[in-house]
Amino acid sequence: MARKIEWTQVGVSSGPTFLSPGWISGKDSELLFTSGCVGNDASGQYPEDVETQTRNALENLKRVLAAGSTDFDHVLKVLLFVSDGSTAATVNKVYQEYFPGSPSRSCIVVSFPDTRIKVELECIAEVPGK
């Protein structure tokens, strides 16, 4: 028998205004699916260096996870987009600080519509206690 999946939007109350919401699936599900989080700061500005943008993107993702009652320890899969493959070592260095457990990850080099963006992350996380 088919089961209807219901979604609940998870928003954040502080931080950059460009934060996209996350979505928790169904009443019986345990997963939070986030939209992409980019490396802008609280004022909406994008730092020039990829290291700071990566930290900002991860902190922005952290806020979305918290709004969905979860955290980095419960992330199952990360989709990482970078604008320049040559920055992968820098991005990976920062990423490892936040994800020492190394959840599954894909990394894709893309051309962002806004050329100030150097990195974007989205993830699927378990919501503990659901």
From TrEMBL:
**Entries under InterPro entries matching the protein:** RutC-like_sf (IPR035959), YjgF/YER057c/UK114 (IPR006175)
Where does the record place a coiled coil?
Answer: none
Which superkingdom does the taxonomy of this entry point to?
A: Eukaryota
Matches recorded under Pfam families: Ribonuc_L-PSP (PF01042)
What GO annotations for molecular function exist for this entry? deaminase activity
Looking at the UniProt record for this protein, which Gene Ontology cellular component terms does it annotate, in alphabetical order?
A: cytosol
Q: Which family does it belong to?
A: Belongs to the RutC family.
| PANTHER family from the UniProt entry | 2-IMINOBUTANOATE/2-IMINOPROPANOATE DEAMINASE RIDA, PROTEIN HMF1-RELATED
Q: What is this protein called?
A: LALA0S08e02718g1_1
